Amino acid sequence: MSEIDEQVRRLREGSPPERREAAISLGRLGGEQAVEALVGALSDATLHHHAMNALRSLGPERAGPGAAALLDHPDPLWRVCAAEALGALRARSALAPLLRALRSGEPRLRRASAEALGRLGLEEASEPLLTASREEDPELQNAALWALAEIGDSRALPVLLERASAAVLETRLVAIAGLRRFPSPRSRKVLEVALAAPHLRVRLYAAESLLHLGDPAGRGSVLSLLASPDRDARWLAANALAAVRGPARREVIAEACPPLFDLLGSDRPDDRYLSLLTLRRILSEVPASLRGPLRALVESLHGDPDSRDGRLATEILRDLEAPPPGAAS
Fold first, then answer.
1. In 3D, which of 75, 159, 151, 77 has the Cα closest to residue 114?
2. In a 3-state reduction of DSSP, which class is residue 265?
3. Do 125 and 117 form a contact (C-beta atoms < 8 A)?
4. pLDDT for the residue numbered 23
5. According to the model, what pLDDT value does residue 323 have?
6. How many CB atoms lie within 10 A of CB 254?
7. Global pTM?
């Protein structure tokens, strides 16, 4: 049995640790057989993350053609997984097969293809996506509208502005998230109104979009929710903070460090874990002046190195030994 046959067998039949190791090995080996096995593994929630990382390690040139061929697989679930993989790979060579999948009669495949086309970011997909955004299937509408926003097609803006106050929550969230791509006064006004919405996720999505646009109102809202007594609010705010991009990122992270340090000293285990997890994600941009206090806090929590918190603390302490980005060598 060849090495690749053995790794495919382990991926399908092995114990959970063996299956994760097999995904990593297949990402190293590559080839049509490896890509097919990894795309199929995306349907398994316990393997999804590892299989997707392996596909990304192969990259669009090595994994894209094989994944595109699987859009014609006889199993409909594999077809959906193939579309998801092509989006994650940003395999621009798959534009034509994804457009064909968008026109198929399979609702799940059409939605997955719309999202994948958005990740490709190609203007050639705009017209078919605009057509899909007007169809009756609300989930396809949302996927196509999100994709148009990702591409940056200005024709999506009026629809996003209208749907940002929709009664259906998921439609509203897609619209609010999409507005971050359009830095117009109308977008900012709609997002600032959404900051006062009663629903927590609407407020968080609006704050995150405003953060991406560099608006101070978004920053203040995220920082406020990070200190909220509501556990869900704290977790959502931390995720928004770690995900923010753009010119305001460093400034926002500097302002978020004190409330994150407060959570690190909390007597609630979930809050300590949330703080460690978020600080691990943003560590490279923690200001040099705060790295010393952070080290002292983390050292006081280090505890069992094999525990959930201990592993994160070990990683943070290790990375704190390296000079912060931009420091003189």
1. 151
2. coil
3. yes
4. 95
5. 58
6. 14
7. 0.76
The mean pLDDT of 307-318, rounded to a whole number, is 86
Between CA 159 and CA 135 the distance in angstroms is 13
Are 220 and 245 in contact by the 8 Å Cβ rule? The answer is no
Cβ count near 55 (within 10 Å)? 31
Q: Of 8-12, 145-149, 305-309, where does mean pLDDT reach its minimum?
A: 305-309
Residues 201 and 37: their CA atoms lie apart, in Å, by: 36
| Distances 320 to 171, 249, 286, 290 between C-alpha atoms, Å | 41, 20, 10, 11
- Find out whether 73 and 102 touch, Cβ atoms under 8 Å: no
- Give which of 20, 98, 79, 85 is closest to 59, Cα–Cα: 85
User: What's the chain's average pLDDT?
Assistant: 90
Contact 9, 37 (CB under 8 A): no
| pLDDT tops 70 at residue 322 | no
Give per-residue pLDDT as tens, 27-67: 999 999 999 999 999 999 999 999 999 999 999 999 999 99
The two structure tokens encoding residue 91: 């395999």
Residues 87 and 118: beta-carbon distance below 8 Å:
yes
User: Minimal CA–CA distance to 231: which of 194, 263, 195?
Assistant: 263
Q: Are 172 and 163 in contact (CB under 8 A)?
A: yes
pLDDT confidence band for 5 (50 / 70 / 90): very high
Q: Which of 197, 201, 194, 229 is nearest to 215 (CA)?
A: 194
Query: Reduced to 3 DSSP states, what percent helix, strand and coil does the chain have, rounded to the nearest 5?
Result: 75, 0, 25
In one letter, which amino acid is 228?
Answer: S
